[in-house]
Design goal:
Blueprint lengths: L1 H26 L4 E3 L3 E8 L5 E9 L5 E8 L4 E5 L3 E2 L4 E8 L6 E11 L5 E11 L5 H4 L2 E3 L2 E3 L3 E8 L4 E9 L5 E9 L3 E4 L3 E3 L4 E8 L1 H4 L3 E11 L6 E11 L7 H6 L3 E3 L3 E8 L3 E10 L5 E8 L4 E5 L3 E2 L4 E9 L5 E11 L6 E11 L2
Parallel strand pairs: 2-9, 12-19, 21-28
Antiparallel strand pairs: 1-3, 3-7, 4-6, 4-8, 5-7, 8-9, 10-11, 11-13, 13-17, 14-16, 14-18, 15-17, 18-19, 20-22, 22-26, 23-25, 23-27, 24-26, 27-28
Length: 367
């Protein structure tokens, strides 16, 4: 009996010994110590080039340490280091470079270091403020047409409604050494007009003209892109071909709750369909079903697709209260490869959701 107790006691002592050794080994695993783990660059100039700081560290343990990875949180930050393995007592450094170009404002970036030591992960941080570089004339007015520069050849009215005409001011900069006159003449459709002309622009100065867009007269919904040409008295490049773009939505005046309860309302069973994997050249069809859950007649103003590969078909445009309807969508995968996501946009007289997007998806395989 004594021998059994002696054996158990000895076994317990041996077990505790090995646990002590394991804990000791864990606690004395290679340790990496950084002088500092964060750096604030303060204010730096956008045009001053890469901002760099060197983080220094030491292997303060009796074991060697290996850096297994050093990764920055974004492509604007680049870490450089000389050696991956540090022997006991060795010092090392990681230089972190930040590119401020085209990144004005505050920044806060990290570099994550993984090692075989303790801790296994260390995060270094850099921060600061990038003072924007002064914009040059070329930066400010990126589009050049003859002696005139402008911010873009696209006059973007953004999202507008059919309620009323919208006017936008356009700056024209004369980069030449001579005065340029913007003539009182333009070519466009009758729903676009140009005012504040004629205008004389002295050398190295900017003047404004006004472009007015009449969306109700345009009689279109969704994205539009319309040409506009203005003229100058230059001997060359006197015609300035521009594009007027906008997304037009139907205007609905404010309505009371009672009026809204009587209005038409379109409701779809589902607004997205995935054809899955198909072969190039396959022609796929899906039918989206909807109901007019409102009390007044629903009118489908029009439908638009994102490309010629997609066609939508409606049997009619008007649906009584409670009536069911279908929109047949055909997708032609000829010439398409890989992931395809196409949109069919519906414009209706539903005042709560006059614009609705149906989505079809597919992955097109090579034959």
């Amino acid at each position: 009996m004594k021998n059994i107790h002696l054996f158990k006691s000895t076994l317990a002592i041996v077990f505790l010994f090995f646990i002590h050794i394991a804990v000791f080994a864990q606690n004395n695993k290679g340790k990496i110590t950084f002088v500092d783990e964060a750096h604030d660059f303060g204010t730096i100039e956008e045009a001053s080039g890469m901002a760099k700081y060197t983080f220094k560290f030491v292997n303060s343990s009796p074991d060697s340490i290996r850096l297994t990875s050093v990764r920055a949180s974004c492509g604007c930050t680049t870490p450089y280091w000389e050696k991956d393995v540090l022997m006991p007592g060795d010092s090392g450094k990681i230089e972190v470079a930040y590119n401020p170009l085209n990144r004005p404002g505050k920044f806060n970036k990290t570099v994550t270091i993984r090692t075989t030591g303790q801790p296994s992960t260390k995060i270094l941080r850099i921060s600061g403020y990038v003072k924007p570089k002064p914009k040059s004339i070329e930066d400010e007015y990126a589009t050049e047409i003859g002696g005139i520069r402008m911010r873009s050849k696209f006059i973007n009215f953004g999202n507008i409604t059919t309620e009323k005409p919208i006017t936008k001011k356009i700056e024209l900069y004369n980069q030449s050494e001579d005065t340029i006159n913007i003539l009182d003449r333009f070519v466009s459709a009758d729903f676009i007009s140009v005012s504040k002309t004629p205008v004389m622009i002295p050398p190295k100065e900017a003047k404004e003209i006004e472009v007015t867009y009449m969306p109700k007269m345009r009689n279109e919904l969704g994205f539009v892109n319309d040409p506009l040409t203005i003229f100058t008295d230059e001997l060359e490049n006197s015609n300035k071909a521009l594009n007027v773009v906008a997304t037009i939505n139907e205007y609905f005046p404010p309505m009371t709750e009672e009026q809204l309860s009587q209005a038409p309302h379109i409701e779809f069973e589902t607004m997205e369909y995935d054809f899955g994997h198909i072969d190039e050249g396959d022609q796929m069809t899906h039918v989206f079903q909807f109901t007019n859950t409102g009390k007044d007649s629903l009118n489908i103003r029009k439908t638009k697709t994102t490309c010629g590969c997609t066609i939508s078909e409606l049997s009619k445009m008007d649906y009584a209260a409670g009536e069911l309807g279908e929109i047949k969508v055909l997708f032609n995968s000829t010439g398409r490869r890989g992931t395809q996501i196409k949109r069919i946009t519906l414009f209706t007289n539903d005042p709560t959701a006059p614009t609705q997007d149906l989505i079809i998806k597919a992955y097109v395989r090579d034959k």
